[in-house]
Amino acid sequence: MSAMSEKARRDGILSLESDISKINDQFLAAGLKMAVDGNAPENIESTLRMELLAMGERHKAGKKFFDLIKLYGPGYGLVGTLVGQVGMFGQLGSGSIEALGHSLAVAVVATMYGAIIANAIAGPIGDKLSLRSGEEMLNREMMLQGILSIQAGDNPRATMDRMIAFIPYASRSKLKLAA
């Protein structure tokens, strides 16, 4: 973003047109294309914000799937337990403690599977999706601010400072060492 800001400031925003095709991120490429095409900053911002909103809704839908599994997993485990107990009660008249024990084990394992699915699989996946969504939203917001800064013709350092504002102070020192 810093290099593009310098190029736009030095050679004009139209000089970025050839760089757009090399950008792998569609959000960034679309925003820069709108800026190069001369769209008003308000139009660029509103279009990209709508894209952010739609992306956030898609992310919520993906997380909701795992939240529902987390919510209903233990219930399905309990249903399995009840089915296993029905089989266990059916074994009571046989007098075989081994068959009774086997049926009880099946019943208890169903509860365990429900708890594992909810708390060891669906819950962590949903939480990770939420974290990744937040990171992606932050990255896109940084891109949006960079695009608007480039379009405004801001000093490249001002563009970089605008984007660094999104990074926690602890991470900024690492970033400055790399620069």
Explained architecture:
- This protein has 179 residues and is an all-alpha fold.
- It is built from seven helices and no strands.
- Helix 1 packs antiparallel against helix 6 and helix 3 packs antiparallel against helix 4.
- The radius of gyration is 27 Å and the shape is rod-shaped.
- The protein starts with a helix and ends with a helix.
- The model has no long low-confidence stretch (mean pLDDT 91).
Give a summary of the structure in a few sentences.
This protein is mainly α and 179 residues long.
**Shape category:** rod-shaped
Let me know the largest β-sheet. none
**How many beta-strand elements?**
0
Write down the secondary-structure element order: HHHHHHH
Averaged pLDDT? 91
Parts with pLDDT < 50 across at least 5 consecutive residues: none
User: What gyration radius follows from the Cα positions, in whole Å?
Assistant: 27 Å
How many distinct helices?
Answer: 7
